[in-house]
Amino acid sequence: MMRESRLNGFFFLLGSLAAWELAAQAGWLNPLIVPPASKILNSFSSLVWSGQIPLQILASLERAAVGYALAAVVFIPLGILMGLYDAFHRGLEVIVEMLRPIPPPVVIPVAMLVFGLEDEMKIFVIFFSCAWPILLNTVDGVRNIDRVLLQTAKTFGLSQQKIMWQVIVPACSPQIMTGLRVSLPITLILVVISEMVGSTDGIGYFVLDSQRRFKVAQMYAGMLALAILGYALNQLFNLLCRIFLPWHVGMNKRME
Amino acid sequence: MSNSKNFNWSGWLAFTLLLFLWEYGSRLSPKLQLYIPPISQIFIALGGLVFSGQLAVQLWITLVRFVEGYLLAAAIAVTLGVILGYLRFVHSFLEMLIEFLRPMPSVAIIPVAVLLLGIGDSMIVAVTVYASIWPVLVNTIDGVRHIERTLVDTGRTFGLSRREILWQVILPAASPYIVTGLRVSLSIALILVTTAEMIAGSKGLGFFILDEERSLHSSNMYAGIIVVAGLGYTLNRFFLTLESRAMKWRHGMSAREAA
Lengths: 256, 259
Hints:
Chain A is mainly α.
């Protein structure tokens, strides 16, 4: 059943591509807007082999990784503190609620003003936009820890440090992972936007620049690369989850 | 944020402190003032822009684009989602296409939209529709699939017509999922509208903010950001209010299910 449905999907995709190709060859589509699929694939493969697309993706990935990692390093500990200490939470709550409704792309002009068009600009934008999902999920995770768990640990005389690393962090890590997972596509979107608005390299810049030069096949090739990148990042994240949190699945089952 | 009987004093105190720090930090350093003008100046700029009606015009343009894009996306995605969730055969054909298109960062569609539709309202709305469709679509498919078949079969046994089953069984049963998708799409739609306005717009709040940055009117830029944040906040509140009204019945229902 499963196999059959995958097969249907595959053939449908193949069929659509063939229909696209035929329509383009027959001249039904404006080649300046929708070139034939084969032309796009050709352009894609030559751009990959010439190293141009890998280079642009590498530039984007570097920014994305730094911003994402920075957000994780800052906001996971902050979230744990906010989840543990109510006074701390209340103190920061208003500031968070004031900043959170700002749509992240709007921060790009601010970052451009402060950092210019450098990498720091994009890193800051990513850092800002990943902050809320990571922070709020971590807070939620810590707050939802069973109090009995903490008290048991205390009763057994675990030190503060041990409680933190052996009880709190493992107990809220699924929620932290949720925050990190939600932030992943946000990171990718924001790196593309910030490269479109203010950059001279990166895959976002590449796609927009190709459009502005009317190199349409090249533009679609860049989009194809982005789709593959998005898919690959998601798969990589799932893999890491399975490696580092294998107990999570079993644990949830036990809880129910 | 916090209800009146439980006012968050420390939170507002910290916020006020931050504003003071901003104000005086900026006043003390002329270099900083270029990027971060004193908060008082930003509010004066905001007042001027509100008074002259300039901001209201930009806000209205952005809001109209947002509403058009969001509602259109919701209508398309729910319709398509119900069809794909219910007819597994059709879904099996489109599944791979969806899986392929969804991970692509939606903003990458902006250059294509510019080619197809030029620079203008229709391009911005189209881009917003494209990006906002995905969360609603995927959630609706999920929701329809999670409906218990007995529910639908019971409806049939009682002689409900197809249309009645759709409106009185399927849509209500899938609505918690649909609402989740709609909530996610709300912020995505706002992101896409402002982004499209920045990249290829000549009007709207996104354009306004970037334009003020480029002409180094930083106070005006911050004023624009305050307005966008206000818009985001208001839209979210509005959605939550509607949601709690519309989903009130759900409370009693799940309690009954649990009993």
